[in-house]
Amino acid sequence: MGRMGGSRHLKRLAAPEFWPLLRKEAVWTVKPSPGPHSISKSLPLLIVIRDVIGYAKTYREARKLIAEGHFKVDGRVRRDYKFPVGLMDVLEIVDTGELFRVVPVPVKVLALIPISKEEASFKLCRIENKTTLKGGKIQLNLHDGRNVEVPAEEARKYTTMSVLKISIPDSKLLGYIPMEKGVLATVVGGMNVGRVGRVVSISEGMRHYRKLVLLEDISGGNFYTSLDKVFVVGTEKPEIALPITVKPVK
After folding, report:
1. Has residue 199 got a pLDDT over 80?
2. With b meaning 16 or more CB within 10 Å and e meaning fewer, what string describes 148-158?
3. Distance in Å from the first CA to the final CA of the chain
4. Please, which pLDDT band fits residue 52 given cuts at 50, 70 and 90?
5. Which residues pair with 149 in a beta bridge?
6. Neighbouring residues of 100: CB distance < 8 A, sequence distance ≥ 6
7. In the beta sheet, which residues pair with residue 91?
8. How far apart are CA 161 and CA 213, in angstroms?
9. What is the model's pLDDT at position 179?
10. 63 — phi, psi (to 5°)?
């Protein structure tokens, strides 16, 4: 992947490999606006509409539909065709009522899968960091750019790399799933992207990318990945729809 920062433009050859683009069909492509997801972990809304779900055939047509407000991301109408759509985001087609969630899948890295209206009312957000605010309150910094404040006396139970269940679009806290042994998780990067399994063990280390997580997949096979590539999705069963079926714990 080539250099992507420091410019308003992006060449197709420098775009992330998982973007569904014909690299030699044209020189340039859409560069995502600064937003909730980084370029390497998102798709511009225009590419989602035109190349992923096929609601437009051309750049001009997709840009017009987006500007007219036909699409919502996480419950809010987005008219910026460069808006970055990333992991766990919910896309709604306003006119048809169709709903999709962005999830990790093998090879494609990110894909949109259909979800129910009930599931579209929330999303899972991973806690990336914790910061202290004036007055002693603690702010949880989430993977999609959201920030959630929690009382100082409750802050200790919220650990980084754990997951919050958040309502959309109003960002109310609905639940919490800690990163610990026995939880269900999906892999969001690396060679094992899209695999789902139960956490068997977590090694100690100074940085998340140095900690190894051992997971057991649905076929009973074990595999390792680094902690920064693990995203918790449930305890006994997944909280969200996934491309594969996961049997709940009895």
Report:
1. yes
2. bebeeeebeeb
3. 44
4. very high
5. 139
6. 53, 90, 91, 92, 112, 113, 114, 115
7. 73, 100
8. 12
9. 95
10. -65, -40
Burial class (CB in 10 A: 0-12, 13-18, 19+), 110: buried
Which one, of 230, 88, 208, lies nearest residue 146 by Cα? 88
For a pLDDT cut of 70, what percent of the chain falls above it?
A: 95
Residue position matching structure tokens 């069909």: 25
Pairing of strands 212-217, 222-226: antiparallel
Token representation of residue 241: 């729809």
The Cα–Cα gap between 242 and 104 comes to: 9
Alpha carbon 170 to chain centroid, angstroms:
18
Token duo for residue 231: 């995203």
Alpha helices in the chain (DSSP H): 45-47, 59-67
What is the arithmetic mean of pLDDT over 223-233?
95
- What tokens appear for 166 in the block? 């958040």
Contact assessment for residue 78 and residue 115, using Cβ atoms and an 8 Å cutoff: no
Cβ atoms of 47 and 32 within 8 Å: the answer is no
Q: What are the CB-based long-range contacts (under 8 Å, 24+) for 115-118?
A: 115/90, 115/240, 115/241, 116/241
DSSP assignments along 126-195, one per residue: EEEEEEE-GGG-EEEEETTS-EEEE-GGGGGG--TT-EEEEETTT--EEEEE---TT-EEEE-SSTTTT-
pLDDT bracket for residue 1 (50, 70, 90):
very low
Mean pLDDT over 51-77 rounds to 97
